[in-house]
Design brief:
By secondary structure, the protein is an all-beta fold. Helix content is 2%, strand content 42%. It contains 1 helix and 57 strands. A hairpin with a 2-residue loop joins strand 21 (241-245) and strand 22 (248-253). The chain is globular, with a radius of gyration of 27 Å. 52% of the residues are buried.
């Protein structure tokens, strides 16, 4: 992603630390992280100009006196822009032939002439690009900036976006969401306009504007559609669910109609036994190019797949995908029973399926069913929601009827649709049941709470939503009171943690403040978790306030079911609400937008979907206009320290005839700065990644990929033990045996004394691997593992490891290096 905007006064703290493991404090953590982050993104003088690397976007950018050129990793295209002229039509100025360059406070600046400065800022969010006009150019009419495309891509220009295509005519990048405002924050009318060849213009009406101006376009990376379908995509609802892990995306289509079975079988859409059977699709990114890797269907089914709605929920972690089929009617219980549909008592009992990847090949690894049920599992909807983190899966069953409370309580059939969640764990290639989750405390009844309708997992933390819960209490760990009986559904969410004694409930989440009432808010309709942060959606919250941490007003009427999302974090004193998320700008009304119908979080980036938002605008950060019923939108929020701000308002870059009923935002996912948005109502019958929307198949659905959003660098953030997603790594000071005394310190540092022969701290679980890594790189780190501890025993991986004056070296003449302890939970 490339963003152009004016951001002034941004500086990074550069202090380094030489603290030893036992002395590091939170301030040192920040300085270490920021110093290393600056080194990764720094502008470096190279022959012919400058260079900056963007690890999050996986590209390098080269700058010269004329402009910039982006070179993506693993892609065969190059793209950049060059300013050729600017000013008012008929009086344009041509930038001076030799710009003077300097780096000041981490910002690269090119002065083109006495009035114009072009600058760049490179950080975790991507590449910021701006122009400063120190005085208004002479002339009248429209202000224009003429930009010429560099590299191998050619622009196709319309008023609201520029699509850059390769030589075959395939779209590669979309430059959209153009917004221009002046120094007083006033939005100015602007548009793109073609000017011939590879050149295009940004045109601005600057009447009464006060300089400088800000120009802000972002990039949509991909438009996802199935590669092959049966007779039609109509009604498949592709994009109802979506998940992402690194360079892999999985998208669910729960109403797909094929009766075929097995991975990469041929879609047949025969109806009858295949009607609404459902499917899921796996897409992978190579460089900046996405392609479909797999079409997922169950290996075996009972008498029929009809109505199973496989793909109603999806989740992914590394090379493992889990797919829910909440209407499946099998009567077996536990793992890998025989799919069977013997009688009506198992109708919509539900199931979940686990798929794994070996190289580029996917196969089914497990068939999961509820293992702890009452008299029957009819209507339990097991698989309504799923989550995965490493070798653990959580499956929600919002229709489960048990009235018992607490983890691993005895199942019964005492509370209609109370709901439950189930935890499974993998050892090697074998999955087994680990826990049955129910709330530890409820009001007078759990009836219709729908606990488990939403679930999420990150390491040893699970979040469970119960959007039908009826308590009016507010705040974390308030007392459930069931004040709102019947169908009022204020909702709640619950946090569970796995400790030495197993899983236990850690928090009962309710909003800290509400408007006049929580009635009908559906708090807990969606949940997401990353480390020690939980996001909860409340799709029917009624406040008309806008902006992060605004005051809930519940004015009703035009703002009925506007929706909201809430951020909770775990601190030393327990869980607390950190933010109340609302859009920064809306159209005429938020009423009915359903913000919070979907939520996702990765580190410091949260995404919130609003499927019934009504704007017909296209592109990122377009202006909401309220012209398209249930078009849908998604919002990206980022955290700096403990403060959240809205970074982007997402809409598709291009549509067929209309966005109406697309329900964009039905699913959202985020990983490493890449955001995926599902749009289950999208109406195009086109197939394949990057297809042209054609509006020929009602309810076919689509997925959209956006890149370059701010993301925390997990390796350099301070975390508490037990909150690291399995298979991922982070840096933290840990109390592994939970006796209140830190017994292990993991962190990134430079020039510190370290001895890889030291024993592992006591109390380390057998399923933890520790690795000592080293990087000499001043740019993006290239870590080399030089030693590991596995099951408590040291395993040296590098030859001739030497310890000289307390510093691990390998004979290199470079005396300075970054080191890290990396912890992986297997």
């Amino acid at each position: 992603m490339l963003r152009q905007s004016l951001i002034l006064g941004l500086g990074l703290l550069l202090a380094a630390s030489r603290s030893t493991a036992g002395e590091i404090d939170p301030g040192d953590w920040d300085r270490i992280r920021e110093a290393h982050d600056r080194a990764c993104h720094a502008f470096r003088k190279v022959p012919g100009g400058w260079r900056a690397d963007s690890p999050g976007q996986r590209w390098a950018t080269h700058f010269d006196e004329a402009g910039f050129l982006v070179r993506p990793e693993g892609a065969d295209w190059r793209w950049g822009l060059q300013l050729t002229r600017y000013g008012f039509e008929g009086s344009e100025r041509i930038p001076a032939g030799r710009a003077v360059a300097e780096v000041d406070s981490g910002q690269l600046r090119f002065r083109h002439d006495e009035s114009l400065i072009e600058w760049f800022l490179n950080d975790r969010r991507g590449l910021e690009h701006g122009f400063i006009l120190e005085q208004r150019p002479e002339g009248r009419g429209e202000l224009l900036f003429a930009l010429d495309a560099r590299g191998t891509l050619r622009p196709v220009v319309s008023s609201d976006l520029v699509v850059f295509e390769d030589a075959s005519g395939a779209p590669v990048l979309t430059y959209s969401g153009l917004k221009v405002w002046d120094a007083d924050g006033r939005i100015l009318a602007c548009r793109f306009e073609a000017s011939g060849g590879t050149e295009f213009e940004i045109r601005v009406d600057d009447r009464d504007a006060r300089y400088p101006l800000t120009i802000d376009p972002l990039a949509q990376q991909a438009f996802l559609k199935p590669e092959a379908v049966g007779t039609s995509q109509a009604g498949d609802n592709f994009g109802w669910s979506a998940a992402i892990s690194g360079d892999t995306v999985v998208v669910g289509a729960p109403l797909e109609d094929s009766s075929s079975t097995g991975v990469n079988s041929t879609p047949d859409d025969v109806g009858g036994t295949g009607f609404n059977s459902g499917a899921a699709y796996v897409f992978v990114r190579n460089g900046e190019t996405w392609s479909q890797q797999a079409y997922l269907k169950p290996d075996q089914v009972g008498a029929s797949q009809e109505g199973d709605e496989f793909g109603i929920s999806v989740a992914i972690s590394g090379d493992t995908v889990v797919v829910g089929a909440w209407q499946e009617a099998g009567g077996s219980t536990g793992v890998d029973g025989s799919p069977q549909e013997p009688a009506d008592e198992f109708y919509t009992s539900g199931a979940a399926y686990v798929f794994v990847r070996d190289g580029d090949t996917w196969s089914q690894q497990a068939y999961l069913k509820a293992f702890n049920i009452g008299a029957a599992n009819r209507g339990d909807s097991f698989g309504q929601s799923v989550g995965i983190s490493g070798d653990r899966i959580v499956v929600g069953a919002g229709g489960e009827d048990g009235s018992s409370t607490g983890v691993d309580s005895a199942a019964n059939e005492g509370a209609d649709r109370a709901g439950a969640a189930y935890v499974f764990r993998r050892s090697g290639v074998t999955w087994s049941e680990e826990a049955y989750l129910k709330p530890s405390g409820v009001g007078s009844s759990q009836v219709l709470d729908r606990f488990g309708s939403a679930v999420a997992i990150s390491g040893d933390v699970i979040a469970v939503g119960a959007y039908g819960e009826n308590s009016s209490s507010t705040g974390v760990d308030s007392t459930p009171n069931e004040d709102h009986q019947g169908i009022s559904t204020p909702g709640a969410a619950y946090v569970f943690e796995r400790g030495a004694g197993g899983w236990m409930q850690e928090a009962y989440l309710k909003p800290a403040a509400v408007g006049s009432s929580q009635v009908g808010d559906n708090f807990g309709y969606s949940v997401a978790v990353s480390g020690a942060t939980v996001v909860v959606g409340a799709r029917r919250e009624d406040s008309n306030s806008t902006g992060v941490n605004s005051v809930p007003e519940d004015s009703g009427g035009a703002f009925f079911d506007a929706g909201a999302a809430y951020v909770f974090v775990r601190g030393q004193a327990g869980w607390e609400q950190q933010a109340y998320l609302k859009p920064a700008v809306v159209g005429d009304s938020q009423g009915g937008d359903n913000l919070g119908v979907s939520v996702a979080i990765d580190g410091d980036v949260a995404v919130v979907g609003a499927t019934r938002e009504r704007s017909g605008s296209t592109g990122i950060n377009s202006t909401p206009d309220e012209t398209s019923s249930t078009a849908g939108a998604a919002y990206v929020f980022v955290r700096s320290g403990s403060e959240w701000t809205q970074q982007a308002y997402l809409k598709p870059a291009a549509t067929g005839g209309s966005l109406s009923t697309d329900n964009f935002g039905s699913a959202v996912a985020v990983s490493g700065g890449t955001v995926v948005v599902g749009s289950f109502g999208e109406r195009s019958g086109s197939t394949g990644v990057g297809a042209v929307p054609d509006e020929s198949a009602v309810g076919a659905g689509a997925g959209y990929v956006f890149t370059g959003f701010a993301v925390a660098v997990a390796d350099y953030a301070a975390w508490s033990a037990g909150n690291i997603p399995p298979g991922e790594d982070a840096s933290f000071e840990g109390d592994w045996n939970r006796d209140g005394v830190p017994n292990g310190v993991e962190y990134v540092f430079g020039d510190a004394a370290i001895d890889p022969s030291l024993p592992v701290p006591p109390g380390v679980p057998a399923d933890v691997e520790i690795h000592l890594d080293r990087s000499f790189a001043l740019g993006p780190p290239t870590w080399t593992t030089i030693a590991s501890w596995i099951d408590g025993a040291p395993v040296f991986l590098a030859e001739e490891i030497l310890v000289e004056d307390g510093l691990v070296v390998d004979g290199s003449s470079e005396p300075r290096a970054f080191y890290r302890y990396r912890v992986l939970l297997r």
